[in-house]
Amino acid sequence: MSLPHSIHVVTHPLVQHKLTKMRDKETSSANFRRLLREIGLLLGYDATRDLPLVRTQIETPVAPMDAPLLDGKKLVIVPILRAGLGLAEGLLDLVPLARMGHVGLYRDPRTLQAVEYYFKMPQDITDRDVIVCDPMLATAHSAIAAVDRMKEVGAKRIKFICILAAEHGARAFAEVHPDVPVFTAAVDAKLNDHGYIVPGLGDAGDRLFGTK
Ligand code: PRP
Ligand code: URA
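Above: inputs. Below: predicted complex with uracil.
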């Protein structure tokens, strides 16, 4: 399957192993939550490779040195509620000083369109790198709506992290937002009539929070 250039599949064995455990319907909510957090950290590691650095003068216990530090204003992590919260935990482990924004969206079960119910961002979003995260990119309606809103408020450098995309959704997202790189652990071939990814992992929010 050849995918658009903006879609990056992270094939690291630890990521693949953890995703398989998450797909397994026997995996408990507690383990699902832990695995989502761990995958979030690993995908975030890949997605933050190009963050800019600045040199700064420090003193080690042995000698002065000119050493690299992250440059610019703090990164903003933006989970799409609800399930994005679980992925954001891992990203926060990676970048503890990051700011957080929240986008509340749910899929209308009949139309599969994304309905917004909450939106709150830190200040100076135009000057910050932004990572929008949601475990699932199915039809991509939610991801597209969230990134549309981020662009509306002025965000310029945006990345999207999910753990699982449907091929259809990945293509749809890349067509609307070709400037937003997507990092995912896998791309599944199908969506069913209810907009669920097949084979997928089921409803990420329900599995994360133990709801039905
Ligand atoms: C799920 C998931 C994504 C969305 C993906 O959320 O967490 O946000 O569906 O589907 P899409 O690509 O077709 O838009 P859901 O709407 O079930 O809300 P929840 O996280 O509150 O359970
Ligand atoms: N949302 C989910 O949680 N799972 C899917 O398979 C599709 C959308």
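The two ends are 33 Å apart (CA to CA).
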